[in-house]
């Protein structure tokens, strides 16, 4: 993990982008409070997929617990066509 202040981050933007390929780079304010994180595109995409998967899992669990009758395949497809 790497950490830089906001002014340092501006001055070393390309170096931070390179460093973020292997580890997160934390951008902090002058009082050492973390304000942002630079991560690689690969890490970001994996994190987004993981969050989307978790949301899908929660939605599926809610659907199983609901008292609504299940949709047929035809009903489901008609919702996408409309």
Automatic annotation (TrEMBL):
Residues 10-23 have a biased composition (Polar residues). Residues 1-23, 60-82 are annotated as: Disordered. It comes from the Bacteria. This is Prevent-host-death family protein. It comes from Leucobacter albus.
């Amino acid at each position: 993990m790497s950490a830089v202040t906001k002014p340092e981050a501006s001055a070393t933007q390309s170096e931070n982008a390179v460093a973020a390929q292997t580890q997160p780079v934390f951008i902090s304010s002058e009082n050492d409070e973390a304000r942002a994180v630079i991560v690689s595109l690969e890490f970001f995409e994996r994190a987004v997929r993981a969050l989307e998967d978790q949301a899908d899992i929660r939605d599926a669990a809610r659907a199983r617990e609901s008292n609504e009758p299940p949709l047929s395949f035809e009903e489901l497809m008609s919702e996408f066509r409309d």
